[in-house]
Amino acid sequence: PNAVVTESKTGVSFPAVLKDSQGLLGIGLRRKAVFGLKNIDVYAFGVYADDNEIKSFVSEKYGTLSTSELKNKDITQDLMESDISVTVRLQIVYGKLSIRSVRNAFEDSVGNRLKKFGGSDNKELLQKFTSQFRDEYKIPRGSIIDLSKEKGYVLRTAIDGKEIGSVESQLLCRSILDLYIGDDPFDSKAKEDIDLKLVSTITK
Ligand code: DAO
Ligand code: DAO
């Protein structure tokens, strides 16, 4: 019942099911080049979504299609744009992460996506999200951060199970998920696995 899946490079484990109903679609690794020299492993991540919500969304949108027809639909895209509940769980691997570097990385990675999907004027939204990251928080190795997209495009953030805030924004939800399952993801193998798992979820 408490099955886990282990990320091979870091040895970090993810539960196969989260919040009773969200199944693990795939896992990956967020690496970052520092000083243009070496890559550090920052965190391992797992992407979760509710099987039943996916199935009902897909049957509503596409009706009854054959397996091969469904394979040609971009279900991953649907997952990013629809109101299906999705959780991205991050488990910190890098032991010296400061809140300042999180904010900087965030402005870079997420800031980029906000521009891509929403145009230029996103300062306020970015600010609203990063203001949740208080200087006094500590995120040592082993910390678990859950980024949950909930009904109504609410993005809820929790550290080690404790909620630190929520922001309602379809653009922000879309931009965060794009880091993991979009066109230019942090870990392309993870994204491939997730695409396959989504097809098998809806065709079984
Ligand atoms: O110590 O300057 C350094 C390197 C820090 C790299 C920071 C990457 C941060 C990635 C975002 C983490 C989100 C939890
Ligand atoms: O990896 O570049 C990235 C961005 C990841 C999004 C991370 C959100 C992290 C929220 C952490 C709050 C810590 C106080």
Task: Explain what you see.
With 204 residues, this protein is α+β, with helices and mostly antiparallel strands. It has one domain: Chalcone isomerase (3-Layer(bba) Sandwich), CATH 3.50.70.10. Helix content is 39%, strand content 30%. The strands form two sheets. The chain has a seven-stranded antiparallel β-sheet. A hairpin with a 2-residue loop joins strand 8 and strand 9. Helix 3 packs antiparallel against helix 6 and helix 4 packs across helix 6. The two termini are 20 Å apart. The model has no long low-confidence stretch (mean pLDDT 92). Bound molecules: lauric acid (2 copies).
In short:
With 204 residues, this protein is an alpha+beta fold. The protein has one domain: Chalcone isomerase (3-Layer(bba) Sandwich), CATH 3.50.70. It has 7 helices and 9 strands.
Give the topology.
Elements: E1 4-6, E2 13-15, E3 17-18, E4 22-34, E5 38-50, H1 51-62, H2 67-71, H3 75-81, E6 86-92, H4 99-118, H5 123-130, E7 144-150, E8 154-159, E9 162-168, H6 170-181, H7 188-203
Helix pairs in contact: 3-6, 4-6
This protein binds lauric acid (DAO) (2 copies).
The site of one lauric acid has 11 residues, from strand 4, strand 5 and helix 4.
User: Based on helices, strands and strand pairing, what is the structural class?
Assistant: alpha+beta
Fraction of residues in helix: 25-40%
Tally of individual domains = 1
**String of helices and strands:** EEEEEHHHEHHEEEHH
Strand count, sense and closure of the main sheet?
7 strands, antiparallel
**Count of helical regions:** 7
Report the CATH topology name.
Answer: Chalcone isomerase
- In spatial order, strands of the major sheet run 3-4-5-6-7-8-9
Shape: globular
Strand content: 25-35%
In the CATH scheme, the class would be: Alpha Beta
- What is the CATH architecture assignment? 3-Layer(bba) Sandwich
- Average pLDDT rating: 92
Number-wise, the strands total 9
Q: How large is the radius of gyration?
A: 17 Å
